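Many introductory courses stop at the sequence. We go one step further.
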Amino acid sequence: MKSKGLIGLLVVGVILLLFVGQGCGKYNSLAAKKQDVNEKQGNVQNQYQRRIDLLGNLANAVKGQLGQEQQIFSDIANARARMGSTTLNATDANAVREFNEAQGQIGLYASRLMSVVENYPDVKSGATVQTYMAQLEGTENRIAVARNDYNEAARDYNTERTQFPGSLVAGFGNFGEAQYFTAITPGADQAPSVDITPNAPRPAAPSRP
């Protein structure tokens, strides 16, 4: 009887060790995937920061020559100030939504400013202005890539945290659901299209949001 009891205890011990080992492995895997999400989130933020900096530079380069278009410069200045106080947390739905909405609005400001500049060929033809406009357009493409990379990492992480035994580990290990970036403001997911040649046809200015 004692030998059977001992065997039973050994079997239970082995099962517990296997369970603990699998749980530790899953914890480490989730931790690595969450770190990847955080890294991709940082890349998104860096690209958005690059955009707002370039937008501010472009605004400074042209506002002295666009006397009747002062509202857009005020909007951009306010947007830059708000961005400095915005905190992004991948697992905080409200923070991600607010950040996403703010960036969508800034994207519309970028499109508006570029359209305004298009209406002033002499301003648009300046080398500095063309450089900033080209860099802004390239940054929009970088943002799209960074957002897609983030969403893929978030999907990979969320899939693992919802599948057994990841669902058990997530509940004990503070592995919250990663939120996705989506296009909330209509048109905000489209990179501004700008022809920087001096004599390009002028597009119609978009309506203010």
